[in-house]
Amino acid sequence: MRESKIVSRKFGHKESHTLQVARKHGGYSAIDAAFALEATEIIDIIKVSGLRGKGGGGAPVGNKWALMPQDHDGPSYLAVNADESEPGTFKDRQIMAKDPHLLIEGIIITCYAIGAHDAYIYIRGEYYQFQQILQKAIDEAYAEGIIGEKVMGHDYRLDITIHRGAGAYICGEKSALLESMEGKRGHPRLKPQQKEPEWYFGNPTLVNNVETIATVPFIVKKGAKAYRLYGTDSSPGTLLFGLSGHVNRPGIYEAEFGVSMLEYIEQYGGGVKGGKRLKAVIPGGASTPVLTAQEASCVRLDYEDLRVMGSTLGTGGMIVMDEDTCMVSALKNLLEFYHHESCGQCTPCREGTGWVDGIVESLLKGEGTEEDVDRLLDVSQTMNGKTICVFAPAVSGVIDSFVTKFRGEFEAYLKGAR
Amino acid sequence: MSFVFTDENLKKIEALKERYPSPKALSLPCLWMAQHQESMVSMEAVEVIAELLDTPPMEIYRVATFYTMLNLEPVGKYHIQLCKTLSCALCGKAEVLKHLQERLDIVPGESSADGKFTLTQVECLGSCGTAPVMQVNDVYYEELTPEKIDEILETLR
Q1: Domain holding B42: CATH number?
Q2: Is residue B118 part of a domain?
Q3: The complex's ipTM?
Q4: Residue A104 confidence (pLDDT)
Q5: Closest approach of chain A CAs to the CA of B103, in angstroms?
């Protein structure tokens, strides 16, 4: 695997979070290039680059930007999604802690492209330490005239405000995030039938993940082609993939899309801990269907290949499980998470997550019945496609993958074999 | 018992109002300030915030009860929140929890008799690469082991 550092380029430098070090290594050099272009030209570059949203959805970023009206009679907003809460995902915090000025640079360019003068960074409440590093960087940027009344001398006002969440996973869903930022419970909104921007207090708003925004300066400075030198045709560029669980060197390592999952785990993660055999990998955060070792050994890390494998790339945060892992306990752990985090708005999700959690609990206690394993699949079916947001369908995919691929382990609990 | 925001926080709230299209956006920032003042959110604080933001108290209460990190009950001086989600569970969370329980003589959901510690198990803290992890008030402690727990508890005494 060749080295592919676009977003993490400055991570290794000492004091990389400071303005001085950021500037020394090219920080904010994309700003003048951006302001020399028309806003719509920037959107075109992003479109051509093929940049896809890095928060988990993988939607084409340029198309999303193009939904923002350029002639809106009133304010437009940018909301940066830093509510990183998907189990197995810990990449955005690296950007905020190690190169916050790259994020600010990306915010400036994005706001200019969509005509926004106010940007908010919605950060999960637990990330207080990283929020403080980011706030310091924002203060530095204000003091140096990088943001504020005139962005680096250009006739463009931009204010950046950090909005702190308070421990609700669902606020990472873009419309729930905006509800939360409007001072309400984080309940996802019904989606329109046709594509349109998000809305913040009735004004058009773009919501993008931290890493997505942090990729923008490279593309604007080096060009769409330079970004496409990495990755595959349909999944261009790089991602801050992550490793956690049973690996020797867990962590975040940027790589281009399309590399082999197993090679990635071997090369960056140093293989499975303790020389054990691999049993399963959750490929991109807890909400992506689990892969068996066999599937993991032949899949490539891009959106298309994981789709073919019946899973999704998600956030690229891989959770590695060794041969001794009990898959029933692993599913129970995740179902507790979902049960706790369901926002409670839709009945199939609110009730379903508790129900499946209860079924797996009774299995683990040895109190399960013959029907329980199929009942899990049945409840999962009822949760899929019948709710406002994709939370319940994701849980459904997780249940189905665990139960169908490791059914023997679930049935073993019925026979008292464990 | 009554609640009043400090002058510093009142200034912050006024400054923040300039940053948002509506004062209603400030419910979470205000709730956080209240919690930082009193280590919990009291009903008195809810009413004060409602008045400041020109919103019915019920709306603020609805928000306060939705978000896990807002404490509606008093917690100890040190609120220990141990991550229980998959990556931490795979990497030795159980052993760390057992040690914490023995050292503090409490189980999750309880506070120590001297009111110093509250122990809670929480969902994913987004620190999966350095599991197991816990948060004490606003600070993360990563790659925990029983030995490391002993060292940390020493500094919190």
Answers
A1: 1.10.10
A2: yes
A3: 0.97
A4: 98
A5: 25
